[in-house]
Amino acid sequence: MYTRWRLYILAVFVAIILILLFACRIWRKRGHSFSAFREVLLILGVVLIVETLIISTLSNFNLGVILPAFFGVPMVFLAFVLPHMKKGFLLFLKWLIAACYGVAFCIFIVCGFLMVRASTEGKNVEADAVIVLGAAVHGDKVTWVLENRLNTAMEYMNEHPAAICVVSGGQGAGESVTEASAMKKYMVERGIDASRVYTEEKATNTNENFEFAKVIIDNVLGPDAKIAFVTTNFHVYRAGQVAKAQGVNAVGIPADDVWYLRLNNFLRECVGICVYALRGDI
User: Which residues form the DUF218 domain (predicted)?
Assistant: First the structure.
C-alpha cells in the first residue's frame, strides 16, 4: 500500500511538471518571453503549493502542512511579475523576498545539520530506561508516526532485556484513551512483557514528557539510572535540548519518519528550533 501511495504522489508531481513545461513552451512559441529561471520558479512554486494540498488530505492540519505553500506562493508570484520589478516598491519587494529566502535557506542548513547530528548520537547507547515520547492517536489506535517510535523502542528492549520503558502521553482532543495507554497496549500485544512498560498519562508536551517520566524512572530504578528516549528522527535534537533543560541526561534514539511527511516535518521542526532558541528554551 505504501509503495502504491508513493507512486500515486510521484505521478501527480511528474504530471504537474510536464504540464507546466508544456505550457511554458507554448507561451514562448506565441512570442512571449519566459526565462528558464522564471520557469524554475513557477514549477517549484506550484509543486510546493500542490504538496500542501495533497498532504492536507493525508495528515492532521498543522504548521508543517502549510509551510510548503507559504514558500511556494511567492515563487509563483515572482515567476509572473519578475520582469516588472525594476524600480520603486516592486524592486524593494523583490529584494525583500530574496533576502527572506536567503535567511530561510541558512536556517534550513543550520537546523538540518543539528537534526542529522543529533539523530546519529544514539546508535550504540546503553540505557536502563527508555522514554517513548507520545504522539497523536486515532481513537485508541496508534498512528504511523507513533507506531514507528514504538517499533524502535521494542527493538531496543529486545536487544536490552533488562531495560524498562516509560511510554509518555496524555489524552488529547479526539482521543478516546491516553496516548500512553494506547502505546502500552500496542507493545504488550507484540510480545513485550507488561511489567517492563510503565505508563505516564499526564504529559501534554515534550517538557512534561521528560519531567513526569523522570519521576517514574527515579521511583523504579533510582536517580542514577541511564536514560534514553525515542522520538522521530527530525525531533531528536529539540527533544534532547528540552531534556537537558529539565535536568534529564538522556540520549535520543531516532525512529523513522513517515515518508510523505518528511518535508513538512523538517520545515515545521526548523520553525520549532528557532522559536525555542528565541525563547531561550534551548
Answer: 128-270
